[in-house]
Amino acid sequence: MPAWPSDPRGTPGGGPRHSDVAVIGAGPAGMSAAVVAAQAGCGVTVLDLGERPGGQYWRWGPASDDGRFHHGWTAFRGLRDSFAGHQAAGRIVHLAGHAVFHVDPPPAAGESGASPRFTVHAVAGERERGYAAVEVSAVVVATGAYERQLPIPGWTLPGVMAAGAAQALLKGSAVVAGQRVVVAGTGPFLLPVAVGLAQAGARVAAVVEANQPLGYLRQPLGLARSWRKLPEAAGYLARLARHRVPVLRRHAVVAAHGDGRLRSVTVARLDPAWAAVPGSQRTLDADVLAVGYGFIPQVELLGEAGAQLRRGPDGRTFAADADADQQTSVPGLFAAGETTGIGGADLSCLEGQVAGRAAARHCGHQVPPAGPAIGRRREALRRFGSLLDAVHPVPPGWTQWLTGDTVVCRCEEVTLARLLAAVDLGADDARSVKLLARPGMGWCQGRICGAAVAAIVAGHRRPGRPDRDDLDFPESAVSRPLAQPVPLEVLAQAAQERATGDMAGSPDHL
Amino acid sequence: MSASHRHDVVVIGAGIVGAACCYYLARAGLKVAVIERGAVAVGTTGAGEGNILVSDKEPGPELELAQLSVRLWRRLGDELGPDAELEPKGGLVVAAGPEERRQLDDFAAAQAAAGVEVRTVGHAGLRDLEPYLADGLAGGVLYPEDMQVQPMMAAALMLRAARDLGAELRLHEEVTAIETAAGRVAGVRTSTGGLSAGLVVNAAGTWAGELAARAGLALPVLPRRGFIVVTEPLPRMIRHKVYTADYVANVASGSAGLEISTVVEATVSGTVLIGASRERVGFDRTSSMKIVGTLAAQAVRLFPVLAGVRAIRFYRGFRPYCPDHLPVIGSDARLPGLLHACGHEGAGVGLAPATGHLIAQIVTGQTAPVSLAPFDPGRFEEPARA
Amino acid sequence: MPDQPSPRPHVDISVDGIRWSVPAGSSIAAAFVASGHPGWRQTRRRAEPRGLGCGMGVCFDCLVTVNGTRGVRACLTDVREGDVITTERGSGFAGLAI
Fold first, then answer.
1. Are A102 and B287 within 8 A, CB to CB?
2. Can you tell me whether residue A395 is helix, strand or coil?
3. B90-111 confidence digits (pLDDT tens)
4. Which among A6, A173, A320, B247 could bridge A335 via Cys, Cβ 3.0 to 4.6 Å?
5. Are A101 and A237 in a shared domain?
6. CATH number of the domain that A179 lies in?
7. Domain range holding A433?
8. Do A102 and B289 touch (CB under 8 A)?
């Protein structure tokens, strides 16, 4: 990283401000933003849900701190060391285990002279459930993304988990999820998950990819520019071959079976619309199904703070619009990493650096402009992200794999039959289905089931109902005024005095 | 305009009031079409708690309407079935201190004289009714007639019952104009065509004023914003709808500022709903941590067990209110054939069946069971044309 | 499991009254999975078992009561010495029903 000229306001003993910038999320984008902003002389408060920095991409724990199963470990170690250095110097305050539930944008122009301030509200501690508020001049939202799931019969059985969950067990706690694992879904992420499990000694019965990655060859321009990414995939495939893990393409796990826990899965070949080809079903024994169908950006904090969002290519996700400085439509509010669109860890780090730099400038620090190379590299990485969307789509034919008794909304245990009964009653758009049958009304507020309900509703719309994305998956579907559950007594505290410039509580250390 | 169907009445709006109008009109034998620009119950009904109350109404026209409506809801509950989640749970109004208790007792006595069932409850009796209620309250009044329903389901079920009787439901279609001929209503023009009918019912809720304007008429229905905080699902810990005595004063207040009282009730699904705030801020959809946090604090003061319970969401709704806090029910003398059924503020769910019943009575030329004069659309002194 | 170079420190916790010894730095979810319990919660409507879902705090399937705090996400929370963990049947608040 380039060295910045030192900023007199940042000199030790000169009282660095711990409340210039709030960075929400300590994954690749968040850590990069925090380090760059701190380097530029800002006081940075990082609020993160996890107990350790690194986010999901660099999930690690005391037993797994040697880079095994990790990608880009050297880069992470360097970033983690810089992060720790800034913490020790008091420039970064790291609030681990903090669940940010709301970001208040600055009040409308007209406040007396003082520069406009954001208030970041968080639940402090998953166990402790206290209240923390941070008042800052700039906010970088780097809340990442989570995996998209498709409901299938039996998907609620213990042992069925997100592909990332199996990886988090391994990387975070050095625990192998089970004895016989099937890794399924779509997207390049399945490969490192399978390799990690195989290397850790699990028997990976199969990798089941629903799409046909030869699709990359049909995207010639994207391929040429993303040449660097190919050897990575080839390397994973080679390692899977060495571990004798079969890789099935154009196949999916269409059902999971077991008695209180997973025992086996049904794998079927898919036609281009993703209907299961009759007669192609096979059963595989498995006690773990690690599954994921791409990623969904977590943008609710941004949307609620007034940032402009744009609909993703398949109509089922939203990402934040950000300019060349990673600034959203709200001045002082920046978005970096997967929140601006799924693009992987390298892009997240780059966007984080740009956001950190711009946030520092927004706070009045002198920061040299980024060279054009950064913009070009960002564009190249973004193009690869779009390429992934094109090669790993999720057509709606999967809805045919379901039976009436399949639970679609896990939190409220709403079955397909109940959803269809609501449609029958006249609810033929996502919002009215939600009001009548309650999918999306539980703890997760529709994060897991929202896209699935949209596909089901779209597939059952009455003749005459316009075919519109905003009816199947309205922007209000990602509008969550409380981005995390909040104890009522914490909400009560949020109504009172805002936090002052000084931080409540002492800085955390790794 | 293409007149593709033969209808007697067009009801504009498929919220709880529109659904009730459609239901009672269909049962009276009329051919009804409901036209809704969104889907069923996605307006204020979708933000409702499902309150069916007599407890918060002072003796007068609205209480009469509410008493009629509660009787009708009991019958509807049987007809619509258990999916409507009609619960005759009763309402408990609590007073914090002795002065508030005196005012509450006076209010309840007047309601009792008007035929409302009331039971005064002393300090000790409160905890028998609600074991988790905070200690130190002066007393309260129990209203056994208060009920709760799932308003979206109730609206959908009423519409289905009406459709079984031949009514037509048209969703995602917006009425752009009310067509007239020879000074009378002739039908409606919509975003996808139109309908001819001699009668139109404006049940457009918080947008009823906007709709009336499309007919060139002024109707002073304005939004009054409210927030509701929703908790994670809980086992049954709160039996009644419980609210503080200042609620009634807040409803009646003409203040444009924030009116905030404490309302807490459980639902069949297990969540607890916490209200109630009232503000006149137009259709401002931004969130207010201050209001939401105050609602949370109040709920915890009333039910300390809720302190560690988590809110999983909050939402806002826009109650349609008129300057005198009474709904608009009846024929519009300015345009024969146009009726209004709107402006119910926060009592739309409770008053819907009575409203629908009255509309059906008016349309079929029968005598209404309550006086319609207080709800007359012509009661506002408005400028000649909007 | 691949060979560990040296034994990891462990912490003692209690789970539904039974003492478990768990490697320090494990999440509570990992502790359940590693000891052969892929499911540890029972849903309130269909009384079905749930365990690890998303692994990152988004799905709320892995909820568990820790030292009296209900609805704690086991995937986000590391074990600590002396933790008293109780599994939730129907709801973490089930004991408070009237």
1. yes
2. coil
3. 999 999 999 999 999 999 999 9
4. A320
5. no
6. 3.50.50.60
7. 396-467
8. yes
